[in-house]
Amino acid sequence: MKEFLITEVELKRYSVLREVTEKRLTLKDASKLLTISYRHAIRLKKRFIKQGIEGLKREKPGFPPNLKITFAIKEEIIKLRENIY
Are 44 and 59 in contact (CB under 8 A)? Predict the structure, then answer.
């Protein structure tokens, strides 16, 4: 059995989406409970049905952020800080 960590948000999503799949709660009400849009709730439900609880985990993007500080800039900032302070 595969082990992984789950956050409180993901646990809440799991319990609410389980209620939706068992027809005890509508998807519209679930989106309000989770404070997400109805469209996003549809996406989450599809991933939950296909992948289970692992589908609710946040996925990291496959690319670095646009405003990421490069290693060279980081080193320069550290040198300037050491020299000034």
Answer: no
